[in-house]
Amino acid sequence: MLDGRGQVKRRAGLRLWLSAGWLGLLVIVAVFAPWIAPKDPLAQDLFLGRLPPFWVNGAEPGYLLGTDSLGRDVLSRIIFGARIALAVALVAGTVTCVIGAMLGLMAGFLRGWVDLVISRLIDIWMAFPPVLFSILLIAVLGPGLMSIIIAIVVIDWTRFARVVRAEAMAQGAMDYVASARVVGRGRVGTMWREILPNVLPTIVVLLTLEMGIAVIVEAILSFVNLSIATDDPTWGGMIAEGRTSVYQAWWVLVFPLVTLFLTVLAFSQLGEGLKDRFDPVLR
Amino acid sequence: MSFLSVRNLSARVKGGPALLRRVSLDVAAGEVRGLVGESGAGKSMIGKAVLGILPNAVQVTGGEIWLDGVDLLALPVAERRRRIGAMAALIPQDPLTALNPSRRIGGQITDRLVDILGWARARAEARALELLAEVQIADPARVMRAYPHELSGGMRQRILIASAFAAEPKLIVADEPTTALDVTVQKQILKLIAGMQAKHGTALLFVTHDLGVVSKVCQRLSVLYGGMVVEDAAVRDFFAAPRHAYSAALLAATPKYTDPMASLTPVPEAVIAAVQAEVAAYDGGAHG
Questions:
Q1: Which residue of chain B comes nearest to A189, CA vs CA?
Q2: Chosen from B93, B100, B176 to mutate, greatest number of chain A CBs within 10 A
Q3: Would you state the pLDDT for residue A79?
Q4: List of domains in chain A
Q5: Residue A2 is nearest to which of B52, B142, B160, comparing CB atoms?
Q6: Which residue of A has its CA nearest to B154?
Q7: Which residues of chain A make contact with B109, given a CB cutoff of 8 A?
Q8: Cβ neighbours of B44 (radius 10 Å)
Q9: How far apart (Å, rounded) are the C-alpha atoms in residues B239 and B179?
Q10: How confident is the model over A223-255, as pLDDT tens digits?
Q11: Packing angle, helices A130-141 and A196-223, rounded to 10
């Protein structure tokens, strides 16, 4: 009998909407930053330094979230910071995902010497302490957006490779794979058509997590001043700057921190929400 | 020569113990041969070897598998795949894992026709509908569009049977096709397989541990122990008078439907010791 599972309408899920909404807002803000941002994020005005946010006494109209010690508008800097954060999340996340998932898929399904090589590589790779590794990489490559992306890809592909490898191995042991082989489909064809679609839900979840991680890594590197030119607004750079004057001007630290937190949370919740919605079997 | 002829097939776990010890058996065109034995006897391995889907860790160490007059083991891999794909099919053990969960049923059945026979998609789809009706699925058009998780185990096994017969193979390996199903469905599925086999005239290698099933669907059977064929007989003769002490004990161990409360008779230890001695003697002879 056909049972009812096909007809169950799943609740669209509050977390999917909230997380997608926040990220959507962030994308719009990032794309239209020059038009949305109330001030120039780089413009300094030492007479307007450390202005509090609008609801606190002594606030200046036009500086909604206050200013930092150099008199730069915090809101505008967060808005322009979103550009870098999202660019890193999308590009680094996707590239890491493609490379890691490919290697994991090959190792898990083809096994044999391919698995041997890739698995040993993963083991060796994971023995490096990631933060030091990335700082070393940036030191060699020189700071800049490109270097951050490369550093994230180089460090984090193992995360995908390991999980996808395990999943591909589990799928490869199923009878439907044996059936496909009897029909005469080659190993590579089987990998693409039979295994990949079943590993895809896992990959999507990992991808969104990875985007969140990429945002954090970028912030960490900015925090230790190894990201982009120090003038350019990045969330991590703002947090680092805000830390030095947290007792006099807490808002310089808190607002970018909250934005960062919400963004990383939104990425991970987006993954969970998508999985609930699109996984046909709900494993 | 028979349609399928396995000659002295030996296999072992790479760097490990032997799994098959010079197994020989024949399946004539249109014949049903049962392959029985306890778990670990190597019955599934024979089926997998014939279809060329042995696990990576298992290695064939000798022998021949003749399918329609060609020794499969002597062919290059790609050629072997093509021959097996064109002539043989599998009815797998566990219907719950034997369909790809992320693809619709229709595509999974028509794949065979499009890939093996090179049919046009529309024609393959018409044929798939016909096959689904043949395995007594109500509303085939709807099932074609369903995903596997929307269907019950018995229904999925019917689909797998339809799919196995789709390309009109000359040989089907049924690897314990009823083991994962509950008893009421088992009976229907057995009847269905037997009916389809008779209608299409397909040779069938029926792997099972259930002698009751063998008596219903098979014409000949091979009894395996420790990767060795201990008896090869016509089903009628076997149930009348098994020749080997181990197969006689196995037959005696089958629960009786007429007296379900009677205690089960295990295979006597003396018989197991004797057959194990045979296996050991074989191993000694092979290496000595």
A1: B115
A2: B100
A3: 93
A4: 68-278 (1.10.3720.10)
A5: B142
A6: A1
A7: none
A8: 17
A9: 22
A10: 877 777 667 788 888 888 888 888 888 888 999
A11: 70
pLDDT per residue as tens digits for the range B59-79: 899 999 999 999 999 999 888
Phi, then psi, of B8 in degrees rounded to 5: 50, 40
Cα A158 to Cα A204: distance, rounded to the nearest angstrom? 16
Order the strands of the B171-175 sheet from edge to edge: B88-91, B171-175, B203-207, B32-36, B220-225, B228-234
- Model pLDDT for residues B93-138, shown as the tens digit of each residue: 888 889 998 889 998 999 878 877 788 999 999 999 999 999 999 8
- Tell if the CB–CB gap between B151 and A2 is shorter than 8 Å: yes
Chain A partners within 8 Å of B48 (Cβ): 178
How many whole angstroms separate alpha carbon B288 and alpha carbon B282? 10
What's the complex ipTM? 0.78
In this complex, the residue of B51, B108, B147 whose CB is nearest that of residue A182 is B51
Spell out the domains of chain B, with CATH numbers in brackets: 4-287 (3.40.50.300)
Hey, what are A121's tokens? 């590589």
Q: Which of A3, A6, A111 sits opposite B152 (nearest CB)?
A: A3
Query: What is the rounded distance in angstroms from the CA atom of residue A243 to the CA atom of residue A237?
Result: 10
